[in-house]
Amino acid sequence: MGAVSTSSADLETVARVADRIRANVERVIEGKSDVVHSTLVVLLAEGHLLIEDVPGVGKTQLAKALARSIDGTVRRIQFTPDLLPSDVTGVSIFNQNTREFEFRPGGVFANIVIGDEINRASPKTQSALLECMEEHQVTVDAMTYQLEAPFLVIATQNPIEMEGTYVLPEAQRDRFMARVSIGYPPAAAEMAMIANHAGANPLDDLEPVTDAAEIRKLIGIVNQIHVAEPIQRYAVGIVAATRASGELSLGASPRATLHLIRAAKASAALQGRDFVLPDDITALAATVLAHRLLPSAEAALAGRQVTEVLRSLVSAVPVPSA
Fold first, then answer.
1. How many of the other CB atoms lie within 10 Å of CB of 144?
2. Are residues 63 and 151 in the same domain?
3. What is the pTM of this model?
4. What is the tally of structural domains in the chain?
């Protein structure tokens, strides 16, 4: 069978629903349209989002605002040092009446899972998310349970320098499609926040603007976006450059290549195109790849940031012509 084409009506549907979600979320998170856009890209690309920043800038508010905008199931897991893997995935309990084991679902059984301060839990507990993030399923006591689509993990974490935090394992970081940093708001947005948020929490008045079924439809449309072979080679070239760089001790994985392509398709759809451009790949490279990379000892001693290294690598990869 040939590829299914994406109609203009489909793209208009993506734009219309995305605009509704964007407007809803920006009622809570003001002055951060780029972060909201990245969140929508991850949602439509069936990825997972890591939000890394200092406390108090709205990481959890962003996750909750997106969750409330979609009329799906939402669970919040507060990651703490004493959180157990079974709290995340679920556990089998023996029922004395039926004389059988019953499965009690953990916090990941929802359309949107908010993992708050994920790097405050031990690496063992963090690793409980690996299977569900990659395969959309949970295995407990040799029984496998499917997770309902859409399934999106939005995890927040504090900078690793802060007290009481653990480094996320490489396998865990690699399962996040993108990492964003909210940053401090502009002065005008902070003034608006004082006026609008001081008396009440805007989340309290937030109503759903779409539902899980419609999000599944949009994800299907995004999957049909065309990626020409030269664009695919361009993405592979960028990822391969991270593996060959002497300034990086850990390059990006093949999963990163897939995430980059899927994110580019979602970004193209949000811009009303049924095909991916090289600019889509370039614009998303840092958001999708940087959190997976580790600098070499020499680069770290020289004060070279991973984002700087990645920027120079991307600029050196030939851009495919039209």
1. 10
2. yes
3. 0.89
4. 2
